[in-house]
Amino acid sequence: MFEILTLNKISKFGLEKFDSSKYTYGDNIAAPHAVMVRSAAMHDMELSANTVAIARAGAGGNKIPVDACAEKGIAVFNTPGANANAVKELVLCGLLLSSRKVIDAIDWCKTLKGEGAAVGKLVEKGKSNFVGPEIAGKTLGVIGLGAIGNLVANAAIAIGMEVIGYDPFLSVNGALCLSPEVKVTSDVKEVIAASDYITLHVPANDSTRGLINADSLAEAKDSVRILNFARGELVNSADIIAALESGKVSFYVTDFPSDDVIGVKGVIAIPHLGASTPESEDNCAKMAAAELIDYLEKGIIKNSVNYPNVALPNTFETRVCVLHKDVEGVQAAITAAVGSAQSIVSGTKKGYGYTVADIKGDIDTAKLENIGGVIRVRVLK
Description:
Distance between the termini: 13 Å
CATH superfamily of the largest domain: NAD(P)-binding Rossmann-like Domain
CATH class of the largest domain: Alpha Beta
CATH topology of the largest domain: Rossmann fold
Radius of gyration: 25 Å
Helix content: 25-40%
Strand order of the largest sheet: 8-7-6-9-10-11-12
Strand content: 15-25%
């Protein structure tokens, strides 16, 4: 029986995927085989030695100690694309809100309460204060063409915008899904310079943190509008505030409010609503559950952020799954220790490896565990 710890309220549509004859789940399991999480911070959490997997019902993994988990042989999964449509829709909302001064106009309209028959005339007199441009015909720069960026780019084309995109890791499938009208460049500076609106859809890491800063904004058009529905750290707060004050940036729409940007003129701060739809939460939970089931029962890794994806047959007699460091000689030693195998599949990612052997009969796991660089051995039957 596999035990799953849930750290947040997980959609019932995800939990229903667990066969009750094989799984139990709940929020008070002390030594779980796996953890399902939406938004809880896990960096200070002490994980059980039983725990072999963590699945985040969402795209990011910043609240999970991903590297520490890799060192312990814990595969960490996320659910890319499951919330993409929800975020795309909010980005489109952000595009419109940043153009038409809708929020300010609504707030002003509330002040007319009590004016009686004069409201109509006051509206006609005051509406000119909230004039804003149409987005059709303008250029949208999409930095990051993954699941969300791809949908945003295509939607922007559909509503009449010009779109230029950048993604150094654009997949073949991602490229095929893009509208042919989207111009793709290998130079992020070209995107910044050409765009009337810039939307960010990249992870936060050492190469992207502070991507929007004083230097990059200096290359942008005057009155550019910046949309950030990816991660707050992608934008330097002090620099965006200065750019708003100077008029270099007209509006900054962010789904990641911070104390320094809240209340600043030109900032539209949204309380992290990108994936907050029932449909998105259901989709993420279902994908996360499927990933855990595949890994716990069959050793299949798909959408892991710290170990390589490995596709495997659904049927086997005995499956030996070895998580290890990606160091010279370790895969050869594992192969030798396994002996005669029906098949051996392996992969590496970010300094870690995963080697899986399908065999007949039993195996002495001690031989594998004593190999230098081996982190964890699982035997499935």
